User: What shape does this take?
Amino acid sequence: MSTTKEPKLNFNSAWDLAPAPEDTKHISLKKQYDLFINGEFVKPNSKKYFATYNPATEEKIADVAEADEKDVDKAVKAARSAFGKWSKLTGKERGKYIYRIARLMQERAREFAVIETMDGGKSIRESRDIDVPLAANHFFYYAGWADKLEYAFPNKNPKPLGIAGQIIPWNFPLLMAAWKIAPALAAGNTVVLKPAETTPLTALKLAELIRDSGLPNGVVNIITGAGKTGAAIVNHPDINKIAFTGSTDVGKLIQRSVSGTDKKLTLELGGKAANIIFDDAPLDQAVEGIINGIFFNQGHVCCAGSRLFVQESVADLVIRKLKDRMQTLRVGDPMDKNTDIGAINSKEQLGKINDYIKIGKDEGAEMYQSTCVIPKKGYFCRPTIFLNATQSHRIVQEEIFGPVLTIQTFRTIEEVIEKANNIPYGLSAGVWTDKGSKIFNLTTKLKAGVIWANTYNKFDPTSPFGGYKESGFGREGGLHGLSAYLDM
Ligand code: NAI
Ligand code: MG
Assistant: This one.
């Protein structure tokens, strides 16, 4: 018998950066992850694995299985066979399982938060205080509807759709898994879910949790891989519904693939939200809203307030306050609880953001960045704003998905409505004013699925979320999110 205790962590030096031992002592990560199909972890058909990295250290964390068409087929068969039993359970029974998942997630919250931060680069404060609790809340919320479907949709005889193929992005890996899985299960569907290739680890931890929860085998299958694996899910003939969150380009591809089939589809795609500050707004609060709107989660947020509109009479003051506040933001080690802005999710994404910063300068907008020191290793980007941006600039029209804000000024409400809507996207918007009447006026005229007033980036499982135009269609969250998984 060995006398030395095997350390749970430190199989690679990514852990060396983790600050406090109490943060990591409950974390167990494997070196290699297989596919979660029919209640167990199985090797991929191709025997191929790909690495997932810690973007703050550039070090490999683990190897993850790459699912091919045969693996997708296996997962779909498991989901189909589970569907027969799962859809016939009473809503109350289904609800019990979903509540159990929610409670286990709370119990393991710390582990989920640390892994989310390691794998994706977001600050531990955000993983711990926002992503993980909200993910658990989605399971709690939808567990409550499982036995009330008739009440939620009276006289409609709601029935599950069948198998949901769910493809999620890398900006909120665990939270997006919860957004997708919880309503699907509450409605009586079974699931094949694929996380993004740069952030698969919390979904695989969720697979372990689901196995431990005793959920019947095959009800949730979690398979990993990149775009090819995603396409194999989309194209599988026995899938009844596709739910996708990600880029508009891939969303369009998926829409083309399912056209002519009877698969149901919801798409949650990009955004380029207007955050609008009127001269009667509480300006200090508004500046906090601007900061949170664009720098939360490194700006990797589809609903980020990435276009700031400030009323001309207060523009100088707001911009001065904003620059001062930007100087106080700490960019760096995501594991440090005092960090405000963590690592950019991947080398590719950092390259894309830097390209846009160059484009902005070439287009003639005036760049300002905070002067903070950023780590030499890892993928980091200083908080960046562009003054004197104009409607025709690419940095104003295109989704950058990073900590980069464009600033435009306006005089009248009509002018700002026109500019805010003159964009291919329509996911979200923010309005800051002291006048309730102005809020109601704007919210009826802005073409955006979600509009915040005197706050920004607030999420709740009860409220529907989704877009117009190139931001996609269908809603997630609330009863709207549940109805997207029901045939009625
Ligand atoms: P992406 O749209 O390629 O990736 C999202 C998910 O789709 C991943 O799980 C990926 O594996 C999967 N996927 C990729 N190709 C697929 C296909 N042909 N069929 C089915 N699934 C497929 O996003 P990517 O390339 O990681 O990021 C590029 C840009 O997209 C970002 O810079 C950002 O602007 C935008 N984006 C927007 C998101 C949002 O929530 N609005 C989320 C992620 C990216
Ligand atoms: Mg990673």
Q: What stands out?
A: The chain is about 40% helix and 20% strand. Residues 124-145 form the longest helix (22 residues). The CA atoms of residues 219 and 388 lie 52 Å apart. The chain has two domains: 32-269+471-487, 274-461.
